Amino acid sequence: MTKPAAPTDGLKRGLKARHMQMIAIGGSIGTGLFVASGGTIAQAGPGGSLLAYALIGAMVLLLMQSLGEMSARLPVSGSFQTYASVFVNRHFGFAIGWNYWFNWAITVAAELVAAGIIMSYWLPDVPGWIWAGVFLLLLTGLNALSTKAFGESEYWLAMIKVITVIVFLACGIAMILGIMGDSSPGFSNWSNGDAPFVGGWLSVVSVFMIAGFSFQGTELVGVAAGEAENPQRDIPKAIKAIFWRIMLFYVGAIFIIGTLLPYADPSLLSSGEADIASSPFTMVFERAGIAFAAALMNAVILSAILSAGNSGLYASARMLYSMALDGKAPKIFARLNRRGVPVPAMLLTASVGLFGFLTAIIGQGSAYTWLLNVSGLSGFIAWVGIAVSHYKFRKAYIASGQDLAKLPYKAPLFPLGPILAFVILIVVIAGQNYEAVVQGRVLEVLSSYIGLPLFLLLWAGHWWVTRKQPEVKVDPWTLR
Fold it and tell me: Would you give the distance in Å from CA 357 to the centre of its chain?
């Protein structure tokens, strides 16, 4: 068995194999599957939606193989920020790191807003901001306790989501076979109207964006590698299982929804957290005869929201901590408490989340929407950083004379994997809101794409400020 890497940056390796497995699973299951999947079927039909999710899922698989190769060999808390700095250049790494930190800091704010909406289902008279405050304190407290406390809480939150999807798949298959529910539609919904492909290729491309957002968070396993108990053993296991999770949870769920619910059902167009009754999961469970389906899915979606907020707070705090260690952020954020938790970095992230939430509740809806748009695009930019870094990583590894057979995990499709993932990501980023571009809706275009010029500004700004400073050369193969 490979000897676990010893951390040199003060963090505690408290995440066990089961934590890493569930972090990898939990990162890819959220409201994108439970709620937004219905809208994709309404837009592109069952065949178009299934194709889009399968293609994006394949791209995510390639991307995670790239991340797995790097993080198993170099399990550091900065993950792809460190890889981008070492294998591409420090300016690119600076931009990737701050881009990723902002992405999750704003995501925490979004999840707080969503949590308030969800709680109004049970307690409509309690203002949403109270619940947001309660959940922010809860998540901050869990993250402040220890790495193990985060891992344990994420394990159980992810477990709820996994069990729900498995039960959904079982019920769906039983309904298709006519074992549950009043009557089975068979496969008629795949041929009704314009099905299985509705709206042609443009609709499939539109669903690419939604599918991409749904899968964001899968890369969390790379960030967690810096605190994994045995990353050389656990990261490869988590990465190797990602393909089957994507196929089972996403492609399987989309197939069942598209088979049981007609794409023209108006309820599928509802895609917000407030539309629990219109969640395709709720609709399928109700048709299976589960009377409390709405309440059940409300609780599951709340667990998904808390899981995303929990992971977001963890990931952004570790990224900020890593950047502070590398001199890319103020040194105060490199401080740890006695349990090895970067509390200052975590508190700044929580403060940004609180600010974003307050921006939403005081009526500045447009400002909040812009923040979310920047955040969403930031996730895709971080994935581009992973693909580019892996390509450079493998080239540097071979150039250093090391044996590929000694890698704890080797991405099987190099160099095709990172190149193909890079190309697909460029298409996804370019097509964020192609309709607004074609129709000349300038403000909407700016709102959708503003994350890209901000990233380039970070990159160029760091180059300008540090262009005369000598770059410190680091032997990447000594990093732990």
Answer: 20
The token duo for 73 is: 């060999």
Rounded Cα gap, residues 220 and 235, in angstroms? 11
Q: Which two tokens stand for residue 121?
A: 């289902």
pLDDT of 91 higher than 90: yes
Extract the tokens encoding 168: 């959904």
Alpha-carbon distances of 434 from 126, 220, 400, 428, 458, rounded to whole Å:
40, 29, 43, 10, 25
Q: pLDDT at residue 194 above 90? A: no
Gap between the Cα atoms of 154 and 161, Å rounded? 11
Among candidate residues 411, 349, 412, the one with its CA nearest the CA of residue 386:
411
In which band, very low, low, confident or very high, does the pLDDT at 255 lie, cut at 50, 70 and 90? very high
Query: In a 3-state reduction of DSSP, which class is residue 184?
Result: coil
Handedness of CA 140, 144, 147, 153 (dihedral sign): negative
What SS3 state is found at 432?
A: coil
Nearest one of 267, 225, 217, 266 to 242, comparing CA atoms: 217
Q: How is residue 177 written in tokens?
A: 């076979």
Predicted local distance difference test score (pLDDT) of residue 458: 94
How many angstroms separate the CA atoms of 247 and 50, rounded?
Answer: 11
Provide the sign of the torsion angle of the four alpha carbons 195, 264, 285, 40, taken in this order. Answer: positive
Tell me the β-bridge partners of 228.
15
What values do phi and psi take at 228, rounded to 5? -75, 145
Give, in degrees to the nearest 5, the angle at Cα 176 between 41 and 278: 40
Tokens of 415: 């160099």
Closest CA to 455 of 172, 102, 58: 102
Amino acid type, 5: A
Cβ(333)–Cβ(320) under 8 Å? yes
Q: If you average pLDDT over residues 29-54, what whole number do you get?
A: 84
| pLDDT for 466 beyond 80 | yes
Reported pTM = 0.89
Token look-up 């394949």 returns: 58
Cα 28 from Cα 234, distance rounded (Å):
18
Beta bridge pairs of residue 15:
228
Q: What average pLDDT is seen over the chain?
A: 82
